[in-house]
């Protein structure tokens, strides 16, 4: 392992911070997602609640009031890197202000200063599933080109304020989520008339892919702005890797698998790393009845604003088949055909460490850019035992297997910058709003409805991972 390998952990502001109305923060789209089905209110209005619904992102893990303790615990584990995000609405409460909210900026100054005090390098995602609800209401999120200008104002403020404190940046979290219907509200801020559920979106592919194009133009412009402010900044893209295998050696399974890789895993990275849409997109758009508005200036912007590195989330793999009579299994954003050779987590996500090695090799061979694993982990029902401890050998085993396969990929010649598992601390699940679906090295004493002391408790995996980092991955 390289001596400067970025070991650490990851969270997202909307899933960890809480303090949804503290110090001038505005309302984000995540603040209006209930737990369970993640219902979206029929009428999206500021600080709206509906009887019988609980909005877990508004409290989350209360990092906003516990950040000092939490960062010191990360320091105790020996983190070299903390992949986090900034809440857009802490800086621009509606997204349209000309002047940023100083209280929000000062909060992140304190966070970054304490991270550096602990020897931890921040890696900041600029937008992680929490765009201002005002922009959703007024512009239908990224469906409008006007959102690009508001995002760039936000980016410029961040780069100018923090470029001496933050070297590593990511523009959008899991931007390829926009290739899927569930990305409408969560990722793109699109609400169709009649929308009620986060997971049961009305979908208009023409609108969705145009909005995704706007996001990628905004990302390319942000890269250019950041590099102009400080040429030493490393600005990357972040995608949800959803690898698939052909279920059988039937050629039609292989062709379907190849098509899915292109349309989900490569669609955004081709643009953000290579600077243009892949050749396969012409037929893809035609088959979907899509005609995107892409100007000559857009094409030049995409070419001029390519990223410095690629960050990924990796949790599981699925299979694909050209036949429809197969049992399906869930996963991070994308369901698929069950792989008979793999076991699954309690949430039905198939566990495939070897798939991480395969995925890293595929990405590096295609793009020749440094890779960063910024999400990888196991959601599980952790139990606080009578001895006051949390014993999670299943998580240790999951991470151990994936780290071994990551090391094999590095030995294969892949340039991997670092590894920040999901998550540093227990947080609210993005897909279900649960606290019970725990990922962290640190247990947070809170339930699915925000009840509890919010006391922080080190799990067994906390001590195990501290030793992994101290040995630079040699002792697993």
Describe this structure in words.
The protein is an alpha/beta fold and 476 residues long. It has a single domain, classed as Alpha-Beta Barrel (TIM Barrel). It has helices at residues 13-16, 63-77, 88-91, 102-117, 133-139, 146-162, 183-186, 205-229, 251-274, 281-288, 296-304, 353-367, 393-411, 460-470; strands at 6-10, 81-85, 121-127, 168-172, 234-240, 244-246, 309-313, 318-320, 328-329, 336-337, 371-375, 416-419, 442-444, 456-458. It has an eight-stranded parallel barrel with strand order 1-2-3-4-5-7-11-12, surrounded by five helices. Strands 6-8 form a two-stranded parallel ribbon. α6 packs parallel to α8 (205-229) and α8 packs across α11. The model has no long low-confidence stretch (mean pLDDT 92). Belongs to the glycosyl hydrolase 1 family. It holds the Pfam family Glyco_hydro_1.
Identify the CATH class.
Answer: Alpha Beta
Class computed from helices, strands and strand pairing: alpha/beta
Unreliable segments of 5+ consecutive residues: none
Give the overall pLDDT as a whole number: 92
Shape category: globular
Strand content: 5-15%
Largest sheet: 8 strands, parallel, barrel
What is the rounded Rg?
21 Å
What is the CATH architecture descriptor?
A: Alpha-Beta Barrel
Strand order of the largest sheet: 1-2-3-4-5-7-11-12
The H/E string reads: EHHEHHEHHEHHEEHHHEEEEHEHEEEH
End-to-end separation in angstroms reads 13 Å
Supply the number of structural domains: 1
Number of strands: 14
Family: Belongs to the glycosyl hydrolase 1 family.
Organism: Amedibacillus dolichus
Protein name: Family 1 glycosylhydrolase
InterPro entries: GH (IPR017853), GH_1_N_CS (IPR033132), Glyco_hydro_1 (IPR001360)
